[in-house]
Amino acid sequence: MTKINGVSLYELKSKYQTPLYIYDEDMIRNQCKIFTKNFRHPKMKSNVVYASKAFLTIAMAQLIHSEGLYLDCVSQGEVYTALKAGFPVEKIVLHGNNKTKEELMMALNFKIGTIVVDNEYEAKMLATLVNDSYKVNVMLRVNPGIDAHTHEYIKTSTLDSKFGMSTLDTRTIETIKLLSNQPDINFLGTHSHIGSQILEEQSFYDHAITILNFYKKIKDETGIELTAINLGGGFGVKYLKDDVRLNLNVVLKELLDIIYQKSNELELKLPHVFIEPGRSIVAEAGYTLYTINQIKTTINHKNYIFIDGSMNDHIRTALYQAKYDCLIVGKENLNHDINYTIAGKACESGDIIIHDIKLPEAYPEDLLLVKTTGAYHYSMASHYNRLTIPPVVFIKDGKHRLVVRKESFMDLLSHDEEL
Ligand SMILES: *Cc1c(COP(=O)(O)O)cnc(C)c1O
To answer: Which domains occur in the chain, in start order?
Structure first.
């Protein structure tokens, strides 16, 4: 592989230098379309919300808007980015498990479409802030206790999770009553998200059924009929050659069918259904291009490739033991018979990009391309060691364009004050 969507990686290197985040814009758009086309049901309203924490820039917010998705934001910074990009406020969903009063006030001032409240405390705080200038849509984050088969750090739905209120907790229904009785709040229903990088479709179906059973319980106990359901994201992607992708064409339709049938069976109102994919919209469309600086073999015969990037632009290996595939540009046809570990420039033993991967013999100045880095890379990048965050390039129809420019050392110092 020497090109991405028709553009030469050598050309990108000479134009933008490395490290460089590269996105195939056509592929992001295609993923958006897979979601919007398949997450449809003739009898129910449904919408796809892009979880912007996976990757957000002004250009990305504009792309998401042009594809007709809603946008999930979790901070004032994400909301600000969306607003600067011209994203319609009514299509913004504000999440966050620990919102400040300022964040809630900002959301109300801008008339953000929907606020997802995390807990009883936040519900009460919001109730004191709303006013009759507009009726805000509100959902409550609940925790349905679904055990999705994913990594410990990205599970979100265990009983002691920091997110939301358990569906088993009696205070949850009390909070729903409180929100439903507020005249300036349009309480829609619950939001829940069972984890990330889930490759087992049954977890999504079990999740929907558990929530609908909870809706039935709410209806029986309080008479409140909830009108919408937000099932979060978590759709897994392919990181390694042997990973099997979720078949989204099947899963999304099936999920809506199950919700339709179950709602009828429980005699519930048909809900407006929302899902919030993040990773599955951008992960596979993104790559990180590095240049190999040095090669080293330890006394114990471990071979290192040192690249010009680091955990600053690629934290997920250190943070989640995530695994990645990579290639040396232009050398895919050579024998992959040397075991390498790819490491970065940061002063940390944990600064590893890939542990143990078989590659052809690598040389300084070779270009190394890490795949599936579109989600939670740029958005998790840091300035550790005062390294600069790489620029971001989009490729569309064989043309490249910068969507985030390279940081300069001036940028890095722009907030520093003299002693
Ligand atoms: C992180 C998150 C998502 C997106 O998760 P992915 O695994 O990236 O699809 C959606 N909704 C909420 C509330 C989240 O926290």
So the answer is: 25-282 (3.20.20.10), 284-406 (2.40.37.10)
